[in-house]
Write a structure and sequence with these properties.
4 helices; alpha+beta; about 20% helix; four-stranded antiparallel beta sheet
Length: about 240
């Protein structure tokens, strides 16, 4: 699948100015006797990014069709690539064995609704200032400050100043015991480029804000909550 993805990176990017270079690069993938530009007439332009292996369907031990996902402009598409594998006894080599085909990518799956769990407003009010303090130090990399919010024996690496805490957008605390799985939506302030005299209205020269969702395991010890673990949140509910 990696071979097909590498091939797609060459095949899907073309313009008249790069025709000679493209032909030379394609030669490393094509079977002997195949058209050097593999069907392209030398006109027009096409560009693809975010190229990743998507699927493989084997016809037999040596032949398969590999699908590669890619992005071109606003469109997400697939490239179907016929591949021949020589087998381990013949060096374990690959070659493109036929013409590729560009296909539309499948539409996003329909996501069914999931009922939200019953929430604990009292625990949420207790946790909110703790979470705000935790995420502030989690972003800044203040190790001593961060330790104040961690449960005994817990160890959590920080961002070390890569982001700045911009606020706690949402906190969902389900009903439960002394240990809970909570979800927090946090706003990170993303640093912009270094300001310059001619930055003008360039949005990249100023900090941006981005919302991220986390799932945390928290534990109540005495009258305070402490973080035992943090990871990415699952699917949204409600």
């Amino acid at each position: 699948m990696a071979f097909a993805a590498q091939f797609a990176g060459v095949y899907l990017n073309f313009s008249p100015a790069d025709a000679t270079s493209r032909q030379g690069k394609l030669a490393a993938f094509l079977a002997e006797g195949m058209a050097p530009q593999l069907g392209w007439d030398g006109n027009g332009k096409f560009a693809a990014v975010a190229i990743q292996p998507y699927d493989i369907k084997a016809d037999d031990a040596n032949n398969a069709v590999v699908s590669v996902a890619f992005q071109s402009g606003t469109r997400r598409m697939l490239l179907s690539v016929p591949i021949y594998y020589s087998g381990d006894d013949a060096g374990g080599r690959f070659v493109v064995s036929g013409r590729p085909a560009i296909l539309p990518a499948p539409a996003p799956a329909d996501l069914p609704q999931v009922a939200a769990a019953e929430t604990d407003d009292v625990a949420e009010a207790e946790l909110k200032p703790q979470m705000e303090g935790f995420f502030k130090d989690y972003a800044s990399g203040d190790a001593a400050g961060l330790q104040r919010y961690l449960a005994v024996g817990a160890s959590v690496p920080s961002f070390g100043g890569a982001f700045t805490f911009g606020g706690l957008q949402d906190l969902v605390v389900p009903v439960g015991g002394a240990t809970r799985e909570v979800e927090a939506v946090v706003v990170w302030v993303v640093p912009g480029a270094s300001p310059s005299a001619d930055a003008g209205a360039d949005a990249s020269a100023t900090g941006g804000r981005i919302e991220q969702a986390y799932r945390l395991t928290v534990e109540k010890q005495g009258d305070k909550w402490y973080v035992k673990d943090i990871r990415g949140a699952g699917r949204a509910v409600g």
